[in-house]
Amino acid sequence: MFWKKKKLTYELQQSLQLNTPLQDMSFTVFDTETTGFAIGASDRMIEIGAVQVEGFQVTDRVFQTFVNPSREIPPLIQKLTNIKQEQVDEAPMPLTAIEEYFAFIEKNKSGGWVGHHVNFDEMVIKKELGRQKYTFQMPTSFDTMHLIRYLDPSGEQQDLEDYAKMFGTEVFERHRALGDALTTAHVFTELLKKLERQGIKTLADLLRIKNGGAYKFASQI
Prior knowledge:
Elements lengths: L5 E2 L18 E9 L10 E10 L2 E10 L8 H7 L3 H5 L4 H14 L5 E3 L2 H14 L2 E2 L5 E3 H8 L8 H8 L9 H21 L5 H8 L11
Parallel strand pairs: 1-6, 2-5, 5-7
Antiparallel strand pairs: 2-3, 3-4
Helix pairs in contact: 5-7, 6-7
């Protein structure tokens, strides 16, 4: 039997000119928590968190919801995230939670998504929608790890908390979607400031990095 996928029609990315200054852009920094890393198989999403960044500043506009995974959260994940089974048992189902998140993005006229290892979180959302036979147009996204590597390609990969300490930014509740989104957002604003000093000032410049622009081998973060 073949299923025709339904399409979600939220405006997940504001239409912007390539010469738009990064200072004038709004970004949605987000994170997810899951029951494990096998998101293509048995593991499911249990939380989404997001915050808006505008003008190189983290705003007070945030989003958070638990998500019902329709399965038990493994004890190790409960201990890591401090998310308890009873918190997700009465939470919205994945489609409802994702639609609420998309409505937050649409309301805030986002110019793109940002995450730390963002491909994983994008895949989590894509897989959850796919289970319900839904698809959507993925917006442009930027990975803080990619930007860090651009500034310091020879540096060793570190944990998100280590980068926050390196940049002198606050570390919020770890292994929780909103907490990690906030930590990532503050790191992201510092990265934008450093990139601006390197001449990366417009959306086109940032896209050039995303698409494999030349690394600044001499620069240090």
